[in-house]
Structure formats: C-alpha cells, structure tokens
Amino acid sequence: MAVAALALAVAGTGPVSAQIIRGQVVDGATQSPMSGAFIVLLDSAGTQRGAVLSGEGGTFILHVPEAGRYRLRAERIGYADMLSEPLRVAQGQTVTYRFGITVKAVDLEGLKITGKGRCRMSREVGAETSVLWDEVRKALSIAVWGDRERGVPYQTMLWARERDLRSLTVSTDTVRLTSGYGRAPFTSESARSLGANGFIRKLADGGYMFYGLDAKTLLSDDFLATHCFRVEKAGRDQKGLVGLGFEPIHRNGPPDIVGTLWVDQKTAELRYLEFKYDKIPMARDLPTRPFGGRMDFRRLGNGDWVVQHWWLRMPQSVVVSVGPVERHVQFRIREQGGEIRFIGAAGTSGAEGRSELSGIVYDSTRSVPLARANVFLTDINRATTTDFVGHFRFNDLPAGRHQIAFTHPRADALGLAVSARTVVVDPNRYTSVALAVPRDAACPASGTTGGVLGFVDDIHSGEPAPGVAVRMTWWNAGKSVSSMTKRVAHTDTTDAHGRYLFCGVPLDTDVDIAAVDGGDIDGPIVKLKLEAPGLVWQELLARHANP
User: Fold this and answer.
1) Could you report the per-residue pLDDT of 39-68, keeping only the tens digit for each?
2) Residue 119's pLDDT is what?
C-alpha cells in the first residue's frame, strides 16, 4: 500500500484533556482538496478510536480520546486506502496534518468471477472477494458511523402491505409519514443473537417474528465468522453490477439468510442488498423465494451513506372457510418497509458568522402556531426547535443563501412532503422568515362536512403514483319526497408525491372512492361513511399508474 506524502506541524496546546487532529485531505498529485473522504483514527493497536468525513475544502477535525500514538486511514469508495505515518499526540495538544492521497482507482470491471469464495471473512483472505468486500465495507462503515455520530433531519414514508403470494400484487396498503432528527430507519438484533436464535423465531402466541439485517450487523465479526462470501455474476436485472454473495457456513442450524450485496462495477459504490430466508418453519411446502428483504443504499453529496429504501416480506397465514364446516389455511405476503422522502445531509457544522435568522412556523390550516417544530438549515447542519408560540432563532450564522425547512407531526399527518426553501441572510444583520403548513393542505373547518386524503399507490410496485385521477361519488337525496336523488361526482389528481385531498364530503353518507383511468375505474373501490367532521385517511390502489 502506498503511503501519502505529508506535512506535519504541531500547533499550540488547547484546553486540558482536549486533544485534536485538525487537517486537510488533498490529491497528492494535484494538491486539490478532496471532500467526502472518510478519515479513520487508529490507535497503536490498530483499533478505530474515531472517524470523520472531510468537508468542503477537504478539511477535517478529529477529537482524540487520549494522548498517544495514532495513525490516520483515508478511505474513498473506488480508491485504495491510504495510511499515514504514526502521529504522536500529547495531552491537550492540537496537531495539524495535511493528508496527501495518492489516487489509485480500484478496478472492479476486471474482477474475475471464479465461483470460489471464502468463509470466516475476518480470518481468511481471498483475492477477488477481498477486493469487493473492501468497497462494500467502506459504504457500510460510513453508514454505521453516520447513524451513531451525525443526526440529521429526515422524513420517511413507512408502509405495511399485503401481497398475493403468486402475483405479488398489492391487496391492502397502510402508509404513514414520520419525521424527526436522527438517522437509522430501522435496526436489527446483534449478529450473535441472530446466529444463536435464528432470523425467524416462534412466539409464545404461536406467531412468528422475522428479522432482517442492518449495516452494523453485516460488519460485525460474528456475522463475518459464520458466513461464506463469494463473487457473483450479475443477471439481467443487475446489468453493470457485480455481486458479493453470502450464505451461512452451517445450514443445519436455526433459520438464517442467504443474500447478495450488489456493487456498481464502474464507481465501486454499493447499490443494494437483497436476501432471502434459507428455511421457513411455518409450513414445509411453503416456498422461500418470495420471503426476505432488500435495502437500497444512497450516497449523499457530502460522502455520507444512508439506506434510502427498504422492505421485509414475511408469510402470513389466513384461515379460509370453504363450507359450513371445512376450513383450510392460505398464505399471503406481509410486507413492511419504508423510504426516505427527505434527508438533510450533514453539512459543515462549524460554519459560523455574525448574522441572525429568526422566524415563526405557522399552521395555516388551523390558524395556530406550531410548537416544537424541528427547523433546520440543510446546507450547514444547524437545527433548532420552535417554542410554544412557534418562534425559532439561529445565531452566529454565515451570511448568504441558505436552505431552510421544518418537520412536524401535523405536516406528517397531512401527508405533506418536507420542502426546503431559500432564505438570504444579510451580513451582520437580523433576518426574519415565516414558514407554514399551507392553507390548502387541509379542508376548511366545518361542522357539517369532512375531508378524505391519502396516497394512491401502484398496485404492482406499491410505490406512490403521481398524476393519477381519483374520483369520489355519492348520492344527494332530494329535499322533498317528489324530488329525485342526484349523483354527485368529484375528481382530484394526485400531486408529485401521490397525494390527493377531497373536502366538503357530507357526513353520514355512503361514499365511493377509487382511482380512474380515462373515466374507467382503475383500482379497488373503497366505500366510506364519515361520521364526524375532520379528515379521514384512506389509501388507494391504481392498476395503470403513470410511470
């Protein structure tokens, strides 16, 4: 492994018990700054003691836990790792270090598919498998570090679906939005617990609990020591990718998983993980193929990694009555999953200035301020929370253009996607801004009518369907015995996020609602009756959703 040329200087001492390595990552040949490099702090035993992503200008700051000898390892997806020479950090010292990286690309397109793998990855070495695993490990390591160290504002769509066992079409779908400040959309159990007790476990009530994987479990020594890995050739659905397959070493233990991590051959970036259970204890003749999970990974602009989309599919038994006495059990697929709708990439948290930005977050649908809304500037990773009258304030901001947005359970309940807007902060001055839930996001207050809102999802993929027509109909009874009843029809079109809204729906009236295509019914008809004013959430399915 080539070692970078470097420049090392010792700065003055800082506060007692505060050791820092401050530096910059540059291209060793051109000396141009390199952002998004993962800088890992290693102690004299080679144990990781800290990590950070280089920011704009290639700069980084590492807080060193104690005095001693350390090395830095620089990692970038698609490039060979670089290791610094030993750095001695004294008590309370700040060390300045310029990390020059010799850029050496990793060639995955020339990787040979031998069909031979290796087991107990942490102990044995195999050429092709090792090269591919190292690129996968980088992405997973950054994702785990980000979950632990760097909370960011997010909004996710979570769903629970039922699918047909053979066609995989969606029969029912329940969706909700949730937002907050954090990272991991889900977590798994430890690899040691999963290895000992299995990925499928029978519960006391006779049901079963199904477990999936997360990045931390995949990286653990326990998982690597109990699974074989091999390079896999891509199929028709994985064009331009190369796979790192894995399976349990011992197949006679509790239920385990078999899967593949798919990596882009050109960029070496991790695209997705798919897996299935190696056995289903619920029924002997139940196929394992439909049941398992998938995680799609995404690299953010600052070099961070997140799980963008995920799902887990499990069998669900249903007792069906054939006659007055005879009954039999049928199986269908129960799917739970989610997708990140918005995430604020962690920016340069140390960016400071002399400007001030304040404002209010307001719910225009109810004419009240929103207390405890999360307000954030996505470009510099600054966040705050509104007080009981909806006010917020940012101090010591750098002047210029910033992206500001907010999240709140009220907006989630209305199915509203997080939307950042630009605000210009004047230098050395006070700037104010007003943020709001838009008035047309809900129905006007009424004591005699209600509203219906929700998402329309594609019946095949389950994804939200934009641009789909939705029709709601009901019959208005005449005011007199001689007058005719009248059929009332209203139509709406889903927005860019698949959301629809109907207002003025009469109470205690049978209502039909469905997706339509060219005037024809294009999905299951849902029958509703609103019993009280307010909003009712209702998911719909469309067979011919727009691509």
Assistant:
1) 999 999 999 999 999 988 889 999 999 999
2) 59
Closest CA to 58 of 35, 90, 81: 35
Model pLDDT, residue 348 = 46
Q: Which stretches of the chain score pLDDT less than 70?
A: 1-17, 109-126, 150, 183-185, 284, 318-329, 345-352, 477-486, 546-547
Q: Give tens-digit pLDDT for 275-310.
A: 999 988 877 677 778 899 999 999 988 888 889 999
DSSP, residue by residue, 426-493: PTTSEEEEEEEE-GGGSPPP-SSEEEEEEEEEETTT--B-TT-EEEEEEEEPPSSTTSPPEEEEEEEE
Instruction: Give burial (CB, 10 Å; 0-12/13-18/19+) of 367.
Output: exposed
Neighbour tally for 56: CB within 10 Å:
12
- The CATH T-level fold of domain 6-105 is Immunoglobulin-like (2.60.40)
d(CA 177, CA 28): 46
- The amino acid at 416: L
b/e code 97-133 from CB counts within 10 Å (16+ = b): bbbbbeeeebebeebeeeeebbbebeeeebebbebbb
Give 186's Cβ-side CA count (13 Å radius).
23
CA–CA dist 143, 237 (Å, integer): 25
Q: How many CB atoms lie within 10 A of CB 463?
A: 16
pTM: 0.84
Residue pair 513/538 in contact by the 8 Å Cβ criterion: yes
Residue 404 token pair: 């500001």
Strand pairing partners for 98?
Answer: 7, 24
Q: Which CATH number fits domain 355-440: 2.70.20.10, 3.60.21.10, 2.60.40.1120, 1.10.3210.10?
A: 2.60.40.1120
